[in-house]
Design a protein that fits this description.
By secondary structure, the protein is mainly alpha-helical. The chain is built from four helices and no strands.
């Protein structure tokens, strides 16, 4: 019964538009979640229906967490690829400010430490 609920919850989840890539990614996530749940239930020493319930609960939670992390990483990578010029400019500006701050901390009499007003 719990396996049916697991399949109903996880079947509509997508990572990629390409079905083959999505099946491969979901198979990898499913294998990882199975291994973690199997190891956790084995260490708890649960058997029978209680072990099965705990296994499927852990497996579902781990599956959803890994899927969510993969979605976040894919969205970030897609954003960086689509907006690489803006991201590059922002990174360069942050590095300039960081370098100026380090220089100002190392040289207390520099112009960077003077008050403007």
């Amino acid at each position: 019964m719990i396996k049916i609920i697991f399949d109903l919850i996880t079947s509509p989840l997508l990572l990629f538009e390409n079905p083959l890539q999505n099946y491969i990614a979901m198979a990898i996530i499913g294998t990882i979640s199975y291994g973690i749940a199997f190891r956790a239930v084995g260490e708890l020493g649960l058997r029978g229906q209680a072990g099965s319930d705990v296994h499927w609960t852990i497996r579902l939670i781990v599956f959803l967490v890994i899927w969510l992390l993969c979605c976040i990483v894919i969205k970030i990578v897609t954003f960086v690829i689509n907006n690489w010029i803006i991201v590059t400019i922002c990174v360069i500006m942050i590095l300039i400010v960081y370098t100026a701050k380090k220089y100002a901390d190392a040289h207390p009499n520099s112009i960077l430490n003077k008050k403007l007003f």
